[in-house]
């Protein structure tokens, strides 16, 4: 899942981005409202974490303009301003949730998970595909009851495939939601991670769950794919 973090205080932005990446999220960072809007209109984010007090356009204005332009991406507002009228203005501007500073990082993560479960539909905390289970809260994966140890990026890729189980997911979609703005579209990194997941998820099982559709993308499914490449 790819997140846009909009925070003008460098140390706070660095700390939050580091914590979110350690939880398997891809994170882009913007330090002002104009940059945030530009990135939001260009990239397909799963969530925006938006500070209110920003240089130039404040978070209220950024959120209103995103909604006016038809962007439905969930927005979590962060602010040190905890007056009731500020919370009301934040929600009225189109935010989906509001978290006053200072906050506990675990609470931030819980709110992020809750918002992500709403897009595009209400996802369960545990996604099951055959005998594979992906616990999106604990970030744990099991197949036939056996735990599979994954790196943060391997987990992020598998969770994205699990959320779209039964669909063919192309490289562009994977790059958009699993990698951040530093992704090199000419690299073979997605293919490398797919192969790693195959070894960890499918090796030793008669039924293969991860499939490649030549020229189309990848699919996580319990169906047998005859033309798998």
Notes on the structure:
The chain has 229 residues and is of the alpha/beta class. The chain folds into two domains: 2-117, 3-Layer(aba) Sandwich (Rossmann fold), CATH 3.40.50; 126-220, Winged helix-like DNA-binding domain superfamily/Winged helix DNA-binding domain (Arc Repressor Mutant, subunit A, Orthogonal Bundle), CATH 1.10.10. Helix content is 39%, strand content 21%. It contains eight helices and eleven strands. It has helices spanning 10-22, 33-42, 59-68, 84-92, 105-117, 152-163, 171-178, 189-202, and strands spanning 2-6, 26-30, 47-51, 75-79, 97-100, 126-129, 132-135, 140-143, 146-148, 210-213, 217-220. The strands form three sheets. Strands 2-1-3-4-5 form a five-stranded parallel beta sheet, with helices on both faces. Helix 3 (59-68) links the parallel strand 3 and strand 4 (75-79). Helix 2 (33-42) runs parallel beside helix 3 and helix 6 packs across helix 8. The radius of gyration is 19 Å and the shape is elongated. The chain starts with a strand and ends in a 9-residue tail after the last strand. The mean pLDDT is 89.
